[in-house]
């Protein structure tokens, strides 16, 4: 049976509840209203865990997305353990004090369940925000990844030794440049995009002189872009 770790955890908790119920029903003691109330909330904790596992693993196809879902499962398991502890305490008390008011454990269980629900919503909201920021960063670094890959590829195509050296130095400049694009850098990046395309054409036609000039121009534009990135970060 191929199960996810989170699914195995929910199954283990279900087994724990079944064992606890069997033991509770085997031991001869008076089953008061507190016992039945507590048993009902244990079932709620299992449903809560199942819902948390569904939420945590929703669209979790990568290791990173599964990692981001872990806090949601942590909240659910902390709730389940805390609830089970309270159940044991209140059931034991009700055995020795059958007149224990039902509202006392009920208030505790409601507060625990409400706090866990808030924690679950907070964890899911935080995960959504972090994933959104990750997506923004990935999108904002697309140009520099493309830029670096293009220059490296062109350096391997150049037959002129001096031009190959220029392209390799340009690749190093790109590698140590600010990788995050913004609206402020778009104009320069559009210009660089066109220059890289022209550089590829110059290499294809064997025009090393034009290719060399383009390398120098691209390097100047890259420095201007980096200066703009630095200036914008200082604001």
Biggest sheet details: none
The percent range for helix content is over 70%
Number of helices: 9
Low-pLDDT residue intervals, each spanning 5 or more residues = none
From the helix content, strand content and strand pairing, which structural class follows?
mainly alpha
Radius of gyration: 31 Å
Query: What is the CA-CA span between the terminal residues?
Result: 56 Å
Order of helices and strands: HHHHHHHHH
Shape category: rod-shaped
Report the strand count: 0
Mean pLDDT: 80
Q: How much of the residues is beta strand, in percent?
A: under 5%
Describe this structure in words.
This protein is mainly alpha-helical and 235 residues long. The protein is 83% helix and 0% strand. It contains nine helices and no strands. The chain has helices at residues 5-26, 33-56, 63-68, 70-96, 103-140, 142-157, 161-175, 186-205, 208-233. The chain is rod-shaped, with a radius of gyration of 31 Å.
Question: What does the secondary structure layout of this molecule look like, with pairings?
Answer:
Blueprint: H1 5-26, H2 33-56, H3 63-68, H4 70-96, H5 103-140, H6 142-157, H7 161-175, H8 186-205, H9 208-233
Helix pairs in contact: 1-2, 2-4, 2-5, 4-5, 6-7, 6-8, 7-9, 8-9
What's the gist of this structure?
83% of the residues lie in helices and 0% in strands. By secondary structure, the protein is an all-alpha fold.
């Amino acid at each position: 049976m191929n199960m996810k770790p989170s699914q195995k955890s929910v199954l283990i908790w279900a087994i724990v509840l079944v064992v606890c119920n069997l033991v509770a029903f085997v031991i001869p003691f008076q089953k008061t209203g507190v016992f039945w109330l507590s048993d009902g909330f244990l079932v709620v904790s299992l449903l809560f865990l199942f819902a948390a596992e569904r939420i945590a693993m929703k669209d979790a196809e990568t290791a990173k997305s599964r990692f981001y879902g872990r806090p949601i499962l942590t909240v659910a398991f902390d709730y389940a353990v805390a609830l089970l502890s309270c159940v044991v305490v209140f059931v034991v008390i009700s055995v020795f004090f059958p007149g224990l008011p039902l509202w006392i454990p009920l208030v505790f269980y409601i507060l625990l369940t409400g706090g866990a629900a808030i924690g679950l919503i907070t964890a899911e909201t935080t995960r959504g925000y972090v994933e959104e920021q990750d997506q923004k960063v990935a999108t904002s670094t697309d140009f520099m990844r493309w830029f670096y890959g293009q220059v490296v590829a062109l350096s391997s195509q150049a037959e002129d030794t001096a031009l190959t050296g220029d392209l390799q130095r340009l690749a190093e400049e790109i590698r140590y440049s600010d990788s995050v694009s913004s609206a402020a850098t778009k104009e320069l990046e559009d210009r660089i995009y066109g220059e890289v395309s022209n550089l590829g054409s110059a290499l294809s036609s064997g025009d090393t002189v034009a290719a060399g000039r383009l390398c120098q121009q691209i390097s100047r534009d890259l420095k201007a872009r980096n200066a703009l990135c630095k200036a914008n970060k200082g604001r």
